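Quick illustration for those who missed Monday's session on complexes.
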Amino acid sequence: MIAVLKAGVSETQKKNLINWIKGQGVDVHISEGQFQTVIGLIGDTSRIDPDLLSGLDIIESVTRISEPFKCANRRFHPADTIVEIGEGENKVKIGGGNFAMIAGPCSVESESQITDIAKAVKASGATLLRGGAFKPRTSPYDFQGMGADGLELLRKARKATGLPIVTEIMSEKHLDLFEDVDLIQVGARNMQNFELLKTLGRTRKPILLKRGLSSTIKEWLMSAEYIMAGGNENIILCERGIRSYDTYTRNVLDLSAIPVVKELSHLPIIVDPSHATGKSRLVPSMSLAAVAAGADGLIIEVHNDPEHALCDGAQSLTPAQFDEVAKKVKALKEIV
Ligand code: PEP
Ligand code: MN
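Prediction with phosphoenolpyruvate bound:
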């Protein structure tokens, strides 16, 4: 249920109303817009009579929200959420018209690899550096990532370039290791790891929540809701392709998810054309398509030696190819 307050309601009136709602055993989510305040009621609202609420002289309107996601719902929070990542002069904003260009290798492999790539992508306009340290691999015999040592190399690359870092968490047991990671990624395979989501909800860390391999948009937003229900509203959604019947591309990039998510939610949404297609030659066109469809950013895999990459070389751009894409994205953004 949401209650929109009339303009000019005093702070005391607002406070009294919120205390009354909380007294009914219902939590509130408050969104202060430029012209109006929207109070979202979360939990079992069956004890609250909507007619009683709408009869109050400080209330403009009361609407029931039928969707199961509340905090992530655009009706609870009409303005776009802007997530801030990193600190000081390298702080990056995503959402509400702020576009993010995230680039880097699938996996951190060595100090020179990650630092060289970080420098190259920064020169091309990347605003964040990606790199996996804990890797979710289909086979237990494949490279599993460098773990904590990989995180240390990411910190070194951040120091060398100033780029905030994005890396995937696989288990809540690792949370301490991620304390100074700027943006924590929840990968497609963990989108419904509810214990992990609840743990991240108790932090105030920015979270990059990828869409599950075969998840509906509603399931994806419910996973965001798990994090938000704990009080962490710093979430960026990432469309990375979903499973379908065609095996030509690694996944099928669901571009329509961008406008749909923007309708349903206030959270920023970015696109990963690398995991969506699995083929580096398809990454440029899908990057541009994502921008045209209104994405708030891109996350692109870049490797300085794709042929010898320990993970996902076939979908990785070289730094020169990334530079080309970044230029085209910049030009297209100006038109869009
Ligand atoms: C990744 O970003 O390296 C990754 C494994 O992505 P996804 O979870 O989308 O497969
Ligand atoms: Mn990858």
